[in-house]
Amino acid sequence: VSSMYTYINPIVAILLGWLLLGEELTIWTGIGMSITIFGVWLVNSAALRNYRQMKKLQKANRLNA
């Protein structure tokens, strides 16, 4: 969770700068934010998939024991 915050924090700062200070958002900023969000999603979905797989194996081991 803390690593996810590390990657999302700059995006929040950019959006707050745009909303509160009138900073300019460019297409490159949007592309960078999209890549970052996709990367965070990719890592978290893989971790969730591994967790579910581990739980399934643990359940199977308990049933076989």
Describe this structure in words.
It is a single chain. With 65 residues, this protein is mostly helical. It has one domain. It is built from 2 helices and no strands. Helix 1 packs antiparallel against helix 2. The longest helix has 38 residues, at 27-64. The chain is rod-shaped.
Please render the helix and strand layout as text:
Layout: H1 2-21, H2 27-64
Backbone structural class:
mainly alpha
Q: Estimate what percentage of residues fall within beta strands.
A: under 5%
Mean pLDDT: 87
**Total count of helical runs of at least 4 residues:** 2
Q: N-to-C SSE series?
A: HH
Largest sheet data:
none
Helix content: over 70%
Number of domains: 1
Short description:
With 65 residues, the chain is mostly helical. Helices cover 89% and strands 0% of the residues. The protein is rod-shaped, with a radius of gyration of 19 Å.
Which labels suit this protein?
89% helix; single chain; 2 helices; mainly alpha; rod-shaped; 65 residues
